[in-house]
Amino acid sequence: MLAWRKAFGKDEGHVMRKMLQNMKLMKKLILLLIVFVVIPTLVLDLVVAKKLESITEEQVGTALLQLVRGSHLTLDRESSDFEEKTEKIMISQEIQQLVSVPSSSEYERFEIFKALDKYLNNYSTNAVRYSLFFSDKDKLYSFVPNSDLLNNGVFYSTDMTDLSWYKAVSQAKGKGIIRVIDKFGYNPNNTQTVAYLRQLNSIYNGETVIGYLVVSGIETPLQMDFVPFDKYKDAQILLLDPDNTVLATNTEAFGIGSKIGIPQGKEEGVYKQLDNGEEIMSVIHTSEITATKLLMRVPVESIIIDHISVQRLVDWIMLIYFLILILASMYFIQSILKPISRLARITNSYHPGKPLAIAMHAESKNEIVLLSNHFIRMTNRLNQTIYDQYELELKHKEVELSILHTQINPHLLYNTLESVYWHTLMEGAAESAEMIKDLSLIMRIGLSKGKLLIPVMEEINHAEAYIRLQLFRYEYAFKAHWEIDEEAKRFLMPKVILQPIIENAILHGIKNMSQDGELWIKVKHTNGKIMISVEDNGYRSADIAMLNAILQGKESNKGFGIINVQKRIQLHFGEGFGLQYASREDQGVRAWIEIPAVSDETDWK
């Protein structure tokens, strides 16, 4: 598996390298800008932004924690102020004399009620109201309105346990507590308020309970101490009791008396949490004096608003920078890469011998223009050289073909052979006459009225005549098999190229095999080509490598006949065609010729 992965990695790397090598220069420039400019800049901007954001959050969180602590200290002083006032009320003569009030008439009780009510009004304001609650099991003060009718005052209750806050105040044993209670007076909506509650005890006998003091509406002065937080947009300030009940707040999102969820162990410090998909920073401080908690909840986005503004400015600068970079790149591409790309396309479309369809530019010091003009001059010189070379090659081919045909065609006269044939036939030597006729056929096809290419059928007739002569010569010591594709007979081929190959097969392969020698001559037309093969079953091993080396010109002064055939084929049809040798599967040698299927000499020129 490891080896497979290494091989896969190498192949993938090779593909990437090859793709980069084949990529156009313009695409390489764009890739270079993206990889080494755009991506590093964006990554650096993202990393720096995140780091600055984290530092900003940490520093702001620390500063907010100090602010919350300071504000909470102010709130504690506010609570201490209520404690001092209630202490003063508790030890006042007006309250303490109630311990030993003798039984009196209703008029005297009314006067006591008025005096107490007047005394409390000195402390009450529009926001903060002071009230006193006394037990009246005997209903001596039934003439006094209850707390359902008045916002504040002196109230008498026949059963103190009916009051929701009574139990908590009693358990405090004279210590002031802050609790959320229902507002006094007409309150159809059950509106709640925050009250400072305290049990009033006798200063002479601490166990004697005189009554209960309730200072309601203290959320108003408490909330006035939230002013330092106003500069933080969307900040929510909450004063909580030990049970996380809201005592005072600056937001309508949390009403007085509502409960707030605080994560376990988050009683002091800074933490973040998600609220309806929005990241909120919470700063909390718990007072050791009042056991209350001051919680500040502010969206992180509000905290880092200045950082976001700076980041947006940086983003705009980067955008402008990238636009300038793109414009500069476009200018570079327009002035340099585009002319080079155009020159590359012209170079790719250029075919030697064909003039370019562009004109030379006016002389300029621009290197691209100079390069383009030099390329046009070079192609013109190359075209002229090609034309000159083409004319020389045509003349050279004509001379070489004439020499080659002169070497292989004996200068016998066809008419003389015809006369000898008829004379021999009249004398009764039929076999000799047939030999002369075959020789005449060979000479007639060899001359072919000066033609260089003849139909395949004529070449086959020539080869058949030659084989008949050789059969007579060697007393029919071998057999010849023919397999000719009818469709191939109409195409043209160089004349007299089968005879030398057949001659080699007879002389070097089967002439001494005493009736066991065989020849196979096959001609086929396939895929626009003519395939001609000559095979023998000769028992003598042949040096195939040497034969092919001779055909490739690697061995000189050998194999004149097959070199002659190879050169004539390639002079007519090019180096992609010609003669080849191979060993047969059983024994013997196989020679095959591959030429194009042409029916007219002009089709290949």
In short, what is this structure?
By secondary structure, the chain is an alpha+beta fold. It contains 15 helices and 17 strands.
Explain what the structure shows.
By secondary structure, this protein is an alpha+beta fold. The chain is 49% helix and 19% strand. A hairpin with a 2-residue loop joins strand 8 and strand 9. The protein starts with a helix and ends in a 9-residue tail after the last strand. Residues 407-413 have low confidence and may be disordered.
Give the key terms.
single chain, 605 residues, alpha+beta, 5-stranded mixed sheet, 5-stranded antiparallel sheet, rod-shaped, kinase
Rg computed from alpha carbons, rounded to a whole number of angstroms: 60 Å
Figure out the total of helices. Answer: 15
What spatial order of strands do you see in the largest sheet? 2-1-5-4-3
Number of strands: 17
What overall geometry do the principal axes of the alpha carbons give?
rod-shaped
Main sheet overview: 5 strands, mixed
The pLDDT mean sits at 81
- Distance linking N and C termini: 58 Å
- The helicity comes to 40-55%
Indicate the low-confidence ranges by residue numbers. Answer: 407-413
* Proportion of strand residues: 15-25%
How would you classify the helix and strand content by structural class?
alpha+beta
